[in-house]
Specification:
210 residues; alpha+beta; ECO RV Endonuclease, Chain A; six-stranded mixed beta sheet; 8 helices; 40% helix
Length: 210
């Protein structure tokens, strides 16, 4: 099957739209997930939905599967039946991207011993008031690097005795993945805009309906 995700990065009009709209939509996601000025953990799920909505917009609802069983923790959607993982990070560094969320040290170790890349990745690097990017990392690129550097250089376990939030791709591995010649990227200038946002308005409007 031809590589369909690459079409996003070759569609000039869509690339321009992503550059223009993504910072605004992610800012909305933050506002929707904030309380007393602090952004909550749920912002990650809202960001994922924004990227999956982009897939639906580009490829049509019939070609994007969103009802993914919980047994596939890394998969956020399937595009033409191929699994896609959506990941987001904030800041200049490529550290902190989770492969799996778990607080169990034993489960984390088992995960590392059994893990092998199995889906394409769409990664968004959010870097407010600076430059970040939107990246496509094909599955074959991940497998190639994984085979070359080995699982212990590819996967970072949480430090013992800390409050472990999950198993991560190492910063070195992710940095190598995004610059691979087969990966694709869109440079994004992350500027905030003034948004008049009321988190309750939508729900109040629903209550007003007859």
């Amino acid at each position: 099957m031809p590589d369909r995700l690459i079409e996003i990065f070759e569609d000039e009009k869509l690339v321009e739209k992503i550059k223009r709209r993504l910072p605004y939509l992610f800012q909305l996601a933050e506002l929707e997930s904030s309380r007393a000025g602090k952004t909550g953990m749920e912002v990650g799920s809202v960001r994922e939905r924004i990227i999956v909505a982009l897939l639906i917009y580009k490829f049509g609802e019939a070609n994007v599967e969103i009802e993914i069983p919980i047994t596939e923790p890394e998969v956020d959607a399937k595009l033409f039946r191929k699994p896609v993982s959506v990941k987001t990070i904030t800041g200049k560094s490529f550290g902190g991207v989770k492969l799996i969320w778990t607080v169990d040290a034993q489960k984390a170790k088992e995960f590392r011993e059994n893990y092998y890349p199995h889906c394409d990745i769409l990664l968004v690097q959010i870097n407010w008031h600076d430059v970040g990017g939107f990246y496509y990392i094909p599955l074959n690129v991940q497998k190639r690097l994984f085979d070359r550097i080995g699982r212990h250089n590819y996967i970072k376990l949480p430090k013992p005795g800390t409050n472990p939030r999950g198993v991560e791709i190492t910063k070195e591995a992710l940095s190598a993945l995004v610059v691979d010649s087969e990966s694709k990227s869109i440079e994004i200038n992350w500027q905030r805009t003034k948004i008049d946002f009321n988190p309750y308005k939508r729900w109040v409007d629903f209550w007003r309906e007859d």
